[in-house]
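Is protoporphyrin IX containing FE placement plausible here? Inputs below.
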Amino acid sequence: MLGTMILYHRDLGLSDEGEALVQTIHVYVGYIFAINLFVRLIWAFAGNRFARWDNLIPVGSGYTSKLRNYLNAAREGKHLLYLGHNPLGQLAVFAIIIALLAMIISGLLMAGTDLYMPPFGSYFQNWVAAAGVNPSDVIAHVRDNVDETAFAEMRAFRRPFSTIHVWTYYIIIGLVILHIFAVIYTEVKTGVNLISAMFTGKKVMPGEAEDEDEK
Ligand code: HEM
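Reply from A.M.:
I modeled the complex. Tokens:
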């Protein structure tokens, strides 16, 4: 939401101060989001078998045969049941995690280039500070004490990260919409309570699950 406000700040008639405020709040929310994803990735080392890496990363012969089974069954109109992610769900979760990581890396970098905020803020202040200026006196949206050539170089360095941030924003919107439709479709087809299970962590199985005996 905050990102959308930054992207469309002109259409929304946000003043420069308003945009700067939204950017700052966006970065603080971004820090919380980054910590949250980091905790989830740590949990992939420590959590139960459904939280672990091999239930997240769609690679390896085990995954390929699982996917082939799932697609062959679907072609015959059979919808296999899983206690963990079904193979397509595993692929979707992996794609979402990669997209979120791209947002965090590009976002943290732009937090440094645009607002001189941690973790890279002081590095960019040193890069653009004019001769004789204490880098910590370089503040966001003020160009009085920056070296214009260095500043232009820094903005050029920033550009690909901004592009990744905006493009991944649209990809995430697409993944979210796809995710919602896929969950509703799978819940209707299998009768498994996927939506409530996302909150309770408890799936009610109308039959035997493919991964029932997996360790
Ligand atoms: C799913 C997570 C995120 C989404 C959907 C998102 C979305 C956006 C969008 C749409 C923009 C406007 C881009 C532009 O106008 O060029 C933006 C800008 C920005 N984002 Fe994010 N963002 C996310 C995560 C983060 C994180 C984790 C950080 C850093 C901690 C961050 C830092 C920034 C910064 C600094 C800008 C300002 C760029 C400018 O000056 O315009 N973002 N974000």
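Short version: The chain is about 65% helix and 0% strand.
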